[in-house]
Amino acid sequence: MTYAVGDIHGCFYALKSLLEKLPLSEEDELIFMGDYVDRGPNSREVIEFLIELSKHHRCIFLRGNHEEMLLNCVKNGSDCDLWFFNGARSTVESFGGVEEIRKFLPFFENTVYHYEKENYVFVHGGVRPGVSLEDQDPFDLVWIRDEFVYSENPLPGKIVVFGHTPFEEPFVSRDKIGIDTGCVYGGRLTALRVEDRKFFQVECANRRW
User: Fold this and answer.
1) Which residue, of 124, 139, 148, 174, has the greatest Cβ tally within 10 A?
2) Each residue of 123-148: pLDDT tens digit?
3) CA atoms within 13 A on the CB side of 158
4) Residue 19 confidence (pLDDT)
5) Distances 113 to 97, 110, 179 between C-alpha atoms, Å
6) Nearest to 8 by CA among 135, 147, 190, 169
7) Could you count the other beta carbons within 10 Å of the beta carbon of residue 209?
8) What are phi and psi of 80, to 5 degrees?
9) Where are the alpha helices (DSSP H) in 54-104?
């Protein structure tokens, strides 16, 4: 089976609770939709947990806009103001400083912008409608919102599973499924089992960060 997990944002205990609800076997695949860090209180614990999990399960780690901002700042020294405006302080505190984050750069660098499986495309933000997957701008893949969410058939023949844009309930249409249900804002953390489109959810207790 294939499970896609929505935006975690440092909500470590919700992540643990959600995975405990999934009837996982060693053959199952886990696709994480990006935004593992920022805003929530336990970003380091989330990353350490995901690294350990990947030793025992096949895991695909998509890149979210928050991973993109982290890499731009910590690795390249650019756009740090943008990152801190979007919740970086909680991440730096969780890791115990920027130098500690550097120890985990291989994880962030190895995240991917999209993943295809059968007639599904998994991506953090979405896609630019009318542009082939191969020609998508990485900026759109992690940042796009309304132009994608409210489009019709953005990738012909494909169902796009995405995070990034929070909804109270999973967003389901003919050609897209959104599974960011605002955990860090006091909503829920959601996983989608792709084969039967069954949703698994846990409540989150975080205040807005």
Assistant:
1) 124
2) 999 999 999 999 999 999 999 999 99
3) 22
4) 97
5) 26, 10, 17
6) 190
7) 15
8) -65, -35
9) 65-70, 80-85, 88-95, 98-102
Report the first-to-last Cα separation within the chain, whole angstroms. Answer: 34
Taking the C-alpha atoms of residue 51 and residue 54, their distance in angstroms, rounded to an integer, is 5
pLDDT, tens only, 168-206: 999 999 999 999 999 999 999 999 999 999 999 999 975
Q: In degrees, to the nearest 5, what angle opens at C-alpha 178 toward C-alphas 175 and 184?
A: 175
Q: Which two tokens stand for residue 177?
A: 């499924």
> For the range 51-55, what are the long-range contacts, defined as Cβ-Cβ under 8 Å and sequence gap of 24 or more?
51/107, 53/19
To 5 degrees, how large is the angle CA 85–CA 108–CA 48? 100
The number of angstroms, rounded, from the C-alpha of 86 to the middle of its chain's C-alpha atoms is 15
Check whether 91 has a pLDDT greater than 90. yes
- Going by C-alpha positions, the residue among 122, 98, 104, 109 that lies closest to residue 180 is 122
Residue 138 CA to residue 180 CA, distance in Å, equals 20
Alpha helices in the chain (DSSP H): 12-21, 43-53, 65-70, 80-85, 88-95, 98-102, 105-109, 138-143, 146-149
Lookup: tokens for 202 = 């846990």
Place of tokens 């999209």: 114
pTM value? 0.95
CB atoms under 10 Å from CB of 205, counted, come to 9
